[in-house]
């Protein structure tokens, strides 16, 4: 316990780490706020620059960027009606009408305080439950990991995209990208076309930066000339009565956020929308109707999306399965630093776990400080024209990709993935499942083969194992239910059930 | 989702390309170890690419079902306007040129050229202002990444002396 506390405090006591976390949080708020820059983009570019650093420094910076970035999206949502990140979509629905009434400062203040509340709940859940889940996860067999991986990709594919088929395609494409190279078990080449370049595989950082950096920059190229609305901001510190009134709603929303964040594959975006929905249904008599600037509709999604940050770390650190796209990128960072996220992470490197908890907490404190100050400067920076921003993103993406292995081939991969990702985004595909596929594909492959070898290659035994062990049975049922919910059969059953009742 | 808009220009072609890519990838995956066993290196790639083919078929069906959006313009013109305008083509070409030049000319020279060209093209202000802005932003990137983060930036084969 004392040791845990010591590791928790490292980041609070070391001036350099303190500075990195603060800088990360500050940068995260701006990155999250500027439409076109996303947290995922920033973390994927950042890990390429920080891979030579000591792991603590890199994690402190990334924790700050993650925390700040998830919150930052709300700023532009309120001020400009442009959600800086998908997790701020619900915030824009209520926040922008408030800003039009001249209450932008108040809206930002309330969002900041509630985001910080949410953040703490998520971190508390991480600190309390991760060790428990980690103990439990040691019981997980290969087939359970296979199922968790499949569920993760399916969840992100179904909940965030417009069609299940597109989500499944994107996930499978990611798995395919992850498979390229020499098979780790037999050293046989896969999709290498007998070239040496492909034998080492496709670097996932190139894929991440391509899909999240270059592709997004190309999408943003459509909105070059979007006008900017100027705002007057007076009051920022929220009223105590407001905070007290919405406290319990924020707590409930944080609960939703943590759980959604902890589910593999789902993150802040979905958490925010579900919490908004919850606020809408649970608030009987809002002062202002929803959609016209109801504070309830602002509090719930913002508390939820920051709670999802802590939640998303739970499966990542205990099972090695990312909770969302950003944690998928962070897993990549941990791999680069020679760490293996999974049930043994907490046993072998407990200091790392408590360090992460410590730096997330610290980032959350900085969030409160930076969130309530410097808004006037902020509005100036966010007005930076995209014509300047987009070329800079490209330069950073190229240099970031190059920095990983100093290999020019990687930057061509980045451009290719960027262009492919652009078309995918235009035609309604999500790129999140691709990255999850890249990260989870090799893990699922290895676990599938281990499970099959465990069943001595007998399909009957292999399938029987999925239902004869309690953990596997629960996961199998969840997987099948998710698959069925996407088929016409499900709709038929639900409509029939509704039919006689009506 | 009954009020879905018509499909975007080029969507059906893209869906078909997804399908074709899936089939080619499946063929490659089959080539790894065929149907020889259940634990061979080729099984999982075949599952993944098989999923791509099946999902691809659904995507094609979905795109075909939604039908074309009713408008007076022909599909290629709409494609040029909504999906791949000239600006995107030029930017992609500039990016390609930048990436080709990066290992040759090194980070500083190639990035300076790229930033000058793209700022001027997208921002359309006084060239002197563009020059100043490109210089400032490049300087900032250099200081942050080379000096603070100590990242090794591409040095360039031809102009090796310019870091």
Which two chains touch over the largest interface?
A-B, 65 and 62 residues
Question: What's the end-to-end separation of chain A, in Å?
Answer: 58 Å
How many domain regions of chain B? Answer: 2
Residues in β-strands, percent of chain A: under 5%
Class based on secondary structure composition and strand pairing of chain B: mainly alpha
* Multimer state: heterodimer
How would the global form of chain B be characterised? flat
Low-confidence parts of chain B: none
Alpha-carbon Rg of chain A, integer = 22 Å
Give the neighbour order of strands across the main sheet of chain A.
Answer: 1-2
How would you describe this structure to a colleague?
The complex is a heterodimer of chains A (502) and B (163). Chain A has helices at residues 2-13, 15-33, 39-50, 55-80, 89-100, 104-137, 142-160, 164-179, 196-199, 204-220, 240-262, 268-282, 296-319, 325-336, 345-348, 350-371, 375-382, 386-405, 408-426, 432-454, 459-468, 470-484, 488-501; strands at 181-182, 189-190. By secondary structure, chain A is mostly helical. Chain A has one domain (2-454). The model of chain A has no long low-confidence stretch (mean pLDDT 84). Helices cover 71% and strands 0% of the residues of chain B. Chain B contains six helices and no strands. In chain B, helix 1 runs antiparallel to helix 2 and helix 4 runs antiparallel to helix 5 (107-123). The termini of chain B are far apart. Classes of the chains: A mainly alpha (502), B mainly alpha (163). At the A-B interface, helix 8, strand 2, helix 18, helix 19 and helix 20 of A face helix 1, helix 2, helix 4, helix 5 and helix 6 of B.
